[in-house]
């Protein structure tokens, strides 16, 4: 981590300056690397959106603005509008930025304004999210809702579902990552110290999605799912939890699609090692790491296609999801005497 010195006799920096410095210089817990791309994307999508009004204000003005009452009100607004998880993530990140700023600008940031949430006992607590598409009705609602979105957003949601990808992975797939001849999408460039991505086979469904996107590809498009909004700085779409909940009316997040993929594979009786390989998931054990490296793309293609065929059949109403998630106990019911 580069040394940071408090500069005297200079204008008070803005919150944007502090935020940019945090993203550039903050290190991970083991202090070996700076923040990864996924982490930075999370900060950017939440802080720049939820606190756009304070970005260009001097820190002295920001500290005056963020009174305990204001902090609590903003926390409640985010909770009401985007859900408990969004409130937790947003203010946890804001707290981290101000903790960093207290060391850099102690004469301006004398205390962390988010402490008001702790003092008032209103920190939103959330259990680990376990939501997924668990019924035929939920699948139908989801499919109808995303089909009404722009073609780019629709295709990105479906691509994420058909590969069990993390939302940020699906949204940031580049054309350079796609090999139509080998029928592969290679996400290895996204690998971080804690998340290992590898080349993955394409299913019939995901290849069809990519072919449609290729036909609509603009001459300057770097990403498969380019942003259709002029305010986007990433260049690609963002799969947002609040948006998905709003259009479906279901308690879903984009990550729910990853859980759905995993659970469908599990209920189809596929080996957990195969599912982990397809979702770039590793538990860190020696056996697991070596298995994920050694399992070939050719061997991974069959279980992927099995999962995708089942997902497609449920989305189209040809098959039922209910039998996957709810056991029929009728055979275990004793007959009446």
Tags for this entry?
3 strands; hpI Integrase, Chain A; 2% strand; disordered N terminus; mainly alpha; 337 residues; DNA polymerase, domain 1; 16 helices; 3-stranded antiparallel beta sheet; disordered C terminus
Give the topology.
Layout: H1 15-25, H2 37-50, H3 59-65, H4 68-82, H5 84-104, H6 115-120, H7 136-147, H8 151-163, H9 167-171, E1 178-179, E2 184-186, E3 199-201, H10 204-215, H11 241-248, H12 254-267, H13 272-278, H14 286-294, H15 297-315, H16 322-325
Antiparallel strand pairs: 1-2, 2-3
Helix pairs in contact: 2-5, 4-5, 8-10, 8-12
Report on this model:
The chain has 337 residues and is an all-alpha fold. The protein folds into two domains: 15-120, DNA polymerase, domain 1, CATH 1.10.150; 136-324, hpI Integrase, Chain A (Orthogonal Bundle). It contains 16 helices and three strands. It has a three-stranded antiparallel sheet. A hairpin with a 4-residue loop joins strand 1 and strand 2 (184-186). Helix 2 (37-50) packs across helix 5 (84-104), helix 4 packs antiparallel against helix 5 and helix 8 runs parallel beside helix 12 (254-267).
């Amino acid at each position: 981590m580069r040394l940071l010195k408090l500069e005297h006799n200079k204008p008070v920096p803005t919150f944007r300056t502090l935020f940019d410095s945090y993203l550039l210089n903050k290190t991970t817990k083991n202090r070996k690397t700076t923040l990864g791309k996924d982490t930075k994307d999370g900060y950017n999508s939440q802080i720049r959106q939820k606190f756009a009004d304070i970005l260009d204000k001097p820190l002295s003005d920001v500290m005056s603005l963020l009174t305990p009452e204001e902090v609590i009100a903003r926390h409640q607004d985010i909770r009401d509008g985007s859900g408990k998880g969004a409130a937790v993530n947003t203010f946890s990140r804001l707290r981290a930025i101000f903790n960093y700023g207290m060391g850099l600008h102690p004469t301006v940031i004398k205390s962390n304004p988010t402490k008001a949430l702790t003092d008032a006992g209103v920190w939103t607590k959330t259990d680990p999210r376990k939501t997924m598409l668990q019924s035929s009705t939920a699948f139908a609602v989801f499919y109808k809702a995303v089909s009404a979105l722009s073609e780019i957003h629709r295709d990105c949601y479906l691509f994420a579902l058909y590969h069990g990808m993390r939302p940020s992975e699906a949204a940031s797939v580049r054309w350079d990552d796609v090999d139509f001849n080998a029928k592969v999408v290679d996400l290895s460039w996204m690998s971080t110290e804690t998340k290992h991505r590898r080349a993955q086979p394409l299913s019939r469904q995901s290849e069809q999605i990519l072919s449609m996107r290729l036909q609509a590809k603009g001459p300057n498009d770097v990403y498969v799912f380019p942003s259709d909004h002029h305010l986007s700085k990433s260049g690609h779409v963002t799969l947002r939890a609040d948006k998905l909940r709003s259009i479906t009316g279901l308690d879903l997040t984009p990550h729910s699609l990853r859980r759905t993929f995993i659970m469908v594979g599990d209920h189809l009786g596929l080996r957990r090692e195969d599912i982990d390989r397809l979702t770039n998931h590793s538990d860190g054990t020696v056996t697991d790491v070596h298995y994920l490296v050694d399992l070939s793309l050719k061997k991974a293609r069959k279980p992927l296609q099995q999962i995708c065929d089942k997902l497609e059949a449920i989305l189209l109403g040809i098959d039922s999801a209910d039998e996957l998630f709810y056991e029929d106990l009728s055979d275990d019911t004793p007959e009446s005497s």
